[in-house]
Amino acid sequence: MVDDDVELSALMAEYFREQEFDLVVANDGTSGLNRALEGSFDLVLLDVMMPGMEGFEVLRQLRRRSAVPVIMLTARTEHGDRIEGLNAGADDYLAKPFSPDELLARIQAVLRRVGRGAALKSEVLEANGVRQVTCEGAAVDVTSIEFDILELLVRSAGRVVSRDDLTRFLYNRQANPMERALDVHMSHLRKKLEQGRTLIRTVRGVGYLFAAEDESRVEAN
Prior knowledge:
Layout: H1 6-18, H2 29-38, E1 44-47, H3 55-65, E2 70-74, H4 79-87, E3 92-95, H5 100-119, E4 134-135, E5 138-139, H6 144-155, E6 160-162, H7 163-171, H8 181-193, E7 200-203, E8 207-210
Parallel strand pairs: 1-2, 2-3
Antiparallel strand pairs: 4-5, 6-8, 7-8
Helix pairs in contact: 2-3, 4-8, 5-6, 6-8
């Protein structure tokens, strides 16, 4: 947990200890980034507003060297801040003040996604030349949530996957029509995979479809 609120960090450490999680705390962005890069952590909880190095910059630097899942924790709830966090590579975004139980549920959802991703590494999924996850023979760097979106789309190649189904798969809840997080992640996947052709199609008002066939080949592993 990287957060300059010492009291909140102490409370969270106590709460997660009761939940059998080990929580390591850093109270500024620079030391938090160093700890995240030095340690072998399952997940990072990252505040935005911190002295020295703010959370968005910590996340950008972390993403250059690590794919560890990140949940942003912040009192800044403006729409643009959420989009900035997702664009920088955050897996989820929770506004302060928050319920510890909700935070725990989101952590467990992210860890389940990561666990599924690891378990599927020996299984080959392929549709339209896409396997997990290389493109034209080159490795594609995806976040854990992008991996899970792609997994569900590839498993359903040629069929429409609704926004509600994707949201339940990722977050264990119903889709909010005003939420843009899913659109941001889809945009990232398209930029990383499509390279001049259409692989992920938006079915307006319904969801998304991964093309089952295409003249081009994308290979993912």
